[in-house]
Design goal:
Blueprint: E1 5-8, H1 12-23, E2 28-31, E3 43-46, E4 51-54, E5 60-61, H2 65-73, E6 78-80, E7 85-89, E8 92-95, H3 100-107, H4 119-128, H5 133-145, H6 156-164, E9 170-174, H7 179-191, E10 195-197, E11 202-208, E12 211-216, E13 219-223, E14 225-228, H8 232-236, E15 241-243, H9 248-255, E16 257-260, E17 262-269, E18 287-290, E19 297-299, E20 308-314, H10 316-321, H11 326-340, H12 344-350, E21 351-356, E22 369-372, H13 379-384, E23 391-393, H14 407-425
Parallel strand pairs: 1-2, 1-14, 2-10, 7-18, 11-15, 14-23
Antiparallel strand pairs: 3-4, 5-9, 6-9, 7-8, 11-12, 12-13, 16-22, 17-20, 17-21, 18-19, 19-20
Helix pairs in contact: 1-7, 1-14, 2-7, 3-5, 4-5, 11-12
Length: 426
C-alpha cells in the first residue's frame, strides 16, 4: 500500500494527525495493532446493564480546547463533575476540606529548583513541618493517584510544570463518554479518504530521508514520511524495530519518561445503594478518597445519577495490585468501596458486574500514561523531535507544555506533528 504519509497508531494522537493531514489533501494510511480505534480511550459496554464504561480516559482535564472543539463537533457537551468530596481516614468518612489547589501550591517553588529532585525529597521538609504536613500528604496522594507516578523517582519539577498548566485539574466529562469523539475522528478520517488498517501490529519501520517502509504483518506500507504515535512504553521496550535505529538522544529521552501504573475498576451495582445510607448523607457524593487501602479513590457519576462507581489506584499501589489476579483485583475494589461505609457485604451483594483492563500487561500500551523521572529536563520535547524531516513523533508522552498523560495533550501533539509534516514535505 502506498501513501504520502503513514500514521502509526489510531489513538487520539494518530486520529488527530491523520485527520489534519487528510484535510490538506495528503494521502494518509493509518495502521493500528488493535481491532479498534481509540487506544487508551477505551469505552466498553457492560452487557448486563447495557451501560458504557470508560476503562481508560474518562475526564477532561483543564481547559482542553481541542477536546472541547471536537466535543462540539459531535454535538456533545462537557458535564461538570460534582464537587462533594469525602475522605476515609481512621476508619470513618468525613467531608474533605482540602482540595487540589492547596496541594498544588506546595509545588509552585519546585519549577524554580536549581537542581531537580524526586517528589519524595521535595516533600520531606513540608511533611516534617506540622503547619504543612496535611498538604504534603495530599500532594503525595495526588502525585500517586492522578499522575500515576512513583514519588520516589518522579521529577518534582515535572510535577510542578504539569500542575501549573492546569492539566491535573479534573473538571468535567464528555456527555455520553469519549466514544462519540473517537467515532467522530474515525469517521472523519474515513470520509476524507484515509485508508485504515486494523489488527496490524507494526514490527519494523525502515526509513531514510524521504522514504519510509513499514512492516505490519501481513502488509508492507510505503510512504514519504511517517507519524509515529506509539506509547512511550512501547518505544522504550523497543517492541518496534527502527532501521536505522533511533538516535541515542531519543533513547536517552525515553529513559527519563516513565509509564505510570493505574488500576481502574468499573463496578455496576443493582441500585446506587450508597445514596440511601446514613439517611442520604452521601446522596450527592462525587468522590471518596481513602488514605489507607489499595484503592486511593472511588467516584460516582454525580451529577448524573446512576449505579456505576469507579475504583482507582495509581502509582505504587496500582503496581502492587497488578500482582493479583483480575478476580482478586475486582473483589478488592468492591470490598474497599463497601468498607467505606462498613457495608462490605452489602456492596458484594449489590454488585451486578465489574470490568477492568490491565494497561501494564497490554502489549500496545505498556502502562497507563507517562510521567517524568528526576532530571528529565526537556525529555518530552526531545522525544517529539523529528528524524531527518521523515519520521515524526506524536502521542501524549511528547506533549511538552504540561499536558503529558492527557487526551488533550495527545490530540494537540497529533495536530502539531501533522503541521510539521506539512511544513517539511508539502
Ligand atoms: C486508566 C486510564 C485512565 C485515564 N484517564 C484519563 C482521563 O480521565 N483524562 C485524560 O485526559 N486522559 C486520561 N488517560 C490518558 C489518556 O487516555 C492518554 O493520554 C491518551 O488517550 C493517549 O493517546 P495517544 O494517542 O497518545 O496514545 P494511545 O491511545 O495509546 O494510541 C497509540 C496507539 O498505538 C497503537 N499501537 C501500539 N503498538 C502498536 C504497534 N506495534 N503497531 C501498531 N499500532 C500500535 C495502540 O494500540 C494505540 O491505539 C487515562 C489513561 C488510562 C490508561
Amino acid at each position: 500500500m502506498n501513501a504520502d504519509v503513514i500514521v502509526i497508531g489510531a489513538g487520539a494522537a494518530g486520529l488527530a494527525a491523520a485527520r489534519a493531514l487528510a484535510k490538506c489533501s495528503v494521502r494518509v494510511a493509518l495502521v493500528e495493532a488493535r481491532d479498534r480505534s481509540g487506544g487508551r480511550i477505551y469505552t466498553r459496554t457492560i452487557d448486563s446493564i447495557a451501560a458504557p464504561v470508560e476503562l481508560g480516559a474518562e475526564f477532561i482535564h483543564g481547559a482542553a480546547p481541542e477536546t472541547l472543539a471536537l466535543l462540539r463537533e459531535t454535538g456533545g457537551t462537557a458535564v461538570e463533575m460534582g464537587d462533594e468530596s469525602w475522605i476515609c481516614a481512621g476508619g470513618s468518612l468525613r467531608r474533605e476540606v482540602r482540595d487540589f489547589t492547596e496541594a498544588a501550591k506546595l509545588f509552585e517553588a519546585a519549577a524554580e529548583l536549581p537542581r531537580d529532585v524526586s517528589v519524595d525529597d521535595y516533600l520531606k521538609p513540608f511533611a516534617a513541618d506540622p503547619s504543612t504536613r496535611a498538604e504534603a500528604a495530599l500532594a503525595r496522594a495526588f502525585v500517586e493517584g492522578f499522575d500515576a507516578a512513583d514519588p520516589a523517582i518522579a521529577s518534582a519539577r515535572g510535577i510542578a510544570e504539569e500542575w501549573e498548566s492546569g492539566s491535573d485539574v479534573t473538571s468535567s466529562r464528555p456527555s455520553g463518554t469519549y466514544a462519540p469523539i473517537v467515532a467522530h475522528l474515525h469517521g472523519d478520517c474515513l470520509a476524507r479518504g484515509v485508508s485504515m488498517l486494523f489488527s496490524a501490529a507494526v514490527q519494523r519501520i525502515k526509513w531514510k530521508r524521504g522514504e519510509v517502509s513499514v512492516d505490519a504483518h501481513p502488509a508492507t506500507l510505503r510512504a514519504g514520511a511517517a507519524v509515529v504515535t506509539l506509547p512511550a512504553g512501547v518505544l522504550r521496550r523497543r517492541d518496534v524495530v527502527f532501521d536505522p535505529g533511533l538516535p541515542h538522544e531519543k533513547y536517552a529521552a525515553l529513559e527519563c519518561i516513565e509509564m505510570g501504573d493505574v488500576t481502574k475498576v468499573a463496578m455496576a451495582f443493582r441500585v446506587p445503594f450508597w445514596e440511601d445510607l446514613e439517611r442520604g448523607t452521601y446522596r450527592d457524593a462525587a468522590i471518596f478518597r481513602c488514605e489507607n487501602g489499595p484503592f486511593g479513590a472511588y467516584w460516582t457519576q454525580f451529577p448524573q445519577r446512576n449505579r456505576l462507581v469507579y475504583a482507582w489506584a495509581g502509582g505504587p499501589s496500582a503496581t502492587a495490585l497488578a500482582a493479583l489476579s483480575e478476580a482478586d483485583r475486582v473483589a478488592a475494589a468492591v470490598r474497599g468501596f463497601g468498607a467505606l461505609f462498613n457495608e462490605e457485604d452489602l456492596a458484594l451483594g449489590e454488585l451486578i458486574d465489574a470490568v477492568t483492563h490491565d494497561w501494564r500487561a497490554d502489549p500496545y500500551a505498556r502502562g497507563a500514561y507517562s510521567y517524568l523521572r528526576v532530571g528529565a529536563h526537556d525529555a518530552r520535547a526531545r522525544l517529539a523531535d523529528s528524524l531527518d524531516d521523515t519520521v515524526f513523533f506524536a502521542g501524549e508522552a511528547t506533549s511538552a507544555d504540561g499536558q503529558g498523560g492527557t487526551v488533550n495533550g495527545a490530540i494537540q501533539t497529533g495536530e502539531r506533528a501533522a503541521l510539521e509534516v506539512l511544513q517539511c514535505r508539502f
